[in-house]
Amino acid sequence: MAQGDHLWTPSEARADATAMRQLNRSMGEKYGFAGTDTAALWRWSIDQPSAFWQAVRDVVDFPLEGDTSTVLRDDGEMWERRFFPEARLSAANLLLRGKADDPAIYFRCEDHETSQWTRGELRRAVGQLAHALKAAGVTAGDRVGGVVTNRPESVAMYIATLSLGAIWTSCAPDFGVESLKQRFSQSEPKILFAVDGFRVARRERNCVPIYQELLQSLPSVERIVVLQTLTESPSLDDLPNSQTYQAFLKTAETDEVPGECFPFDHPAVIVYSSGTTGAPKCIVHGAGGPLLQLMKEHRFHCDLQPGDIMFYYTTCAWIMWNWMIPALANGAAIALYDGNPSVPEKDMLFAFAEEIGVSHLGMSAMYIDMCRKRKMPIGENRDLSKLRCLMSTGSPLSTDNFEYIYASVKSDLHLASISGGTDLSSCFVLGDPTSPVYSGEIQMAGLGMAVDVYDPDGNSIPTGAGELVCTRPFPSMPVYFWNDPEGLKYRGAYFEEFEGIWTHGDLIERTAHGGYVILGRSDATLNPQGIRMGTAEIYAEVLTFNQVLNCLAAGYQARGDEQIVLFVQMDAGQDLTDELIAAIKERIRRELTVNHVPAYVLSAPDLPRTRSGKLAEIAVKCILNNREVRNASALANPESLDFFRQLEQFS
How far apart are the first and last CA of the chain? Predict the structure, then answer.
């Protein structure tokens, strides 16, 4: 099969029952377009943003206080426009609403530790934490940091912070000391929650020595609260201003959740860019915009309903953690897995989904590729009868992996490849549960998201590769960047390439079906003989070879042109032979063009990745072209760069 081949269409009954179709029908009747035409619904959502976002509010029951008559203050530059500028809300109470005995969180750790929290239990934990934070002097605008694992307590910490109008910011405990310093030294948390360690691949790691060094660089931290999770909890005697989580909870006077409302755009979360091109950017998201946006994505694009279970495999440092939590506000439960996704069973994510009856499962494209290469017959081994939607992000999902899901996981399934990012805490392009799925394609642009494709001159192009842009404001745009009082970094990050237009930095192409294909990061775009091409399409062909575990392509300037250098990471026990190199080049030539064929194909022992799992193509490109790699410590595996530095043919 090839890109664009049809893989799945929902039954008419299934499509009719979705929230997307119901919104389409009701808005179509009111505004005069076909009630089964998602493309028409999208166009209306762009042309009538105030009516659209008010309709979303009505469907998802998004309570606001104050004056809600102005949905969008649509004056000034794009970055200055604001949604619901006179309204206020309690994000915490919205996330916690529901019956006390309804399930809220399912949790499992790779060491078999399991728990289930009801909404009542989550509400009490949030209330206790909120009042303990208040007793510790936390007020609106203060930062509360977390070096935490993907546990129920971490979700409670996050919501408790929101309830006080304080700002939550988190990293994962596998970050090195320098990476933690680079982030928290900017955001300056007053209280730091931290786990004493973590487990991965059946090994325990004590993190207390890391915190001892970290706190020396964080004078803002008045108290570090340590959640003890290891088999043998390490001593905190040498950790200054420390307190156990349980002792901290005892300082709370009550477990009632504070009910104060804050402005719609009140700063709520600081998230960080990958930091691979310099110090990580501190991106500040508001309380209301991302929550409304994600409730829209979950309800309409994923068809998440009250009583469903959303499970996205993530860490607290990846934006998908923030993306998943608002499922609580839609009346669904969330599932958290802490540990290696292949431990104790190779298909652990699917095993956990089977165990608790997950309806919506999310994972990285890399994990799906691993399952395919191991030829895992998931559908034969697991009862996934309750699974309706499988989501993939982190990198483009190849056609082989689209086909693997339908052949080996489940044939009647909405497979939604989605793409957005930390910058918007949501998606630009994602799924449509009422429309067909085509191999290798993302189904549609998000409702209310004015996605377009621009050529280098800023012209909208109907075909061919171009820059992913968004031409109109959306609720989850950052409120601002931290420590950027004039907004220069914020505007420079998104609005300078095409003046006043959000330029996301992805190379994208429309498809004949009205969908999209992400071709890779535009700053890593290959340009041999002046022809722009993305790396993702090359990867899709190379990864069809089962001997290849992963690959990375970068441009090398030589003799006035750019040559493509392809690095392949071989699977265990496999070698890169001359025959395999020839086969790789032939497939690329046959399936793509002669211009895509790499000048060099080399074996690499490891490939550099960001902490969210994305290939660090720019770092390799810098080394090949004798340029400095900025902030290599931001990589998950900076030692991998040593191999590329010693390549004599590019020195």
Answer: 41
